Amino acid sequence: VSENPDAPLDKIIQEIVELLPPAWQYPEIASARIVLGNKTFKTRNFSDVGPNQKATIVVEGREIGSVEIFYNIKEKNLNQNPFLEEEDKLIQEIARQIGIIVERRKAQEEKEWLQEQLLHADRLATIGQLSAGIAHELNEPLNNILGFAQLIKNSRDVSKQIKEDVEKIIKSSLFAREIIRKLLIFSRQLPARKEKLNVSDLIKESVSFFSLQCSKYNIDLSLELDENIPETVGDGAQLTQVIVNLGVNAVQAMEEKGGKLTIKTYSDDEWVYIEVKDTGKGIANEIKDRIFLPFFTTKGVDKGTGLGLSVVHGIISSHGGSIKVISSPGKGSRFIIQLPIS
Prior knowledge:
By secondary structure, the chain is of the alpha+beta class. It is built from seven helices and eleven strands.
């Protein structure tokens, strides 16, 4: 049963529990139960009435469940201790083997998760290199467009209509330049101006950029900030952009029904943490690994460029930190940032 690597763990445990009663001295009145974490697996005729035999399932030195055999004494008269010494050894071995199965599954899942993270990091690095190259190539012609547009706008013998059209060219060029700047941040091509700062103070200043939106959409904004949090070294402007991007994303996730946006800070011996939590739509599992990729977005064309979270990832990485997301559809999202203590 346990040698099928593709079978779900729940199926394996259920098959094991069904195999237990025939291995005992009185199979006709025996029933079995395996408890594993918060899940319980039972034989079809399960009854917990009568004498029982139990063994603990242990993984990495921690008790995670148990294996139990029950005899229904209503069905048959039994001695005071109806279980054989061999059956006690057997149930202990079964519990041990289940522990090994669980441990192997856990190790395999961790291995697959690490491989996925490595692939994800490699994709981000490749996209970062491409983004930096494209951004640098676009910068020069874009600066030329802006320069000549400014010259035309400031010319005296230009009609009002032409000046209005040139103003549109300038605005579009500035928008394009902002996208290039974000690409360079994502690819870590722009140096950060780093200094010691208090992330709790930074958050207090940053929330003003989206607090009005919270009021507009009936969103309760809650700050749980550690006033004595250790300082970190960072670029205040870039970290402000991180908070604003995450805050605006959270507001957009709750526009329809309102909700609660919580921003908190805390620390341990090595890191300071910023946590941004909302009660919005949540993120589907199939796209969770792609949300930090440039230009990936599920929003409409009028809601942004799809660079917000990729810029956040780039900024945090350039500060020697990391960011992760915990989310599921309909249950909101929680972004956790960690930055090194200065």
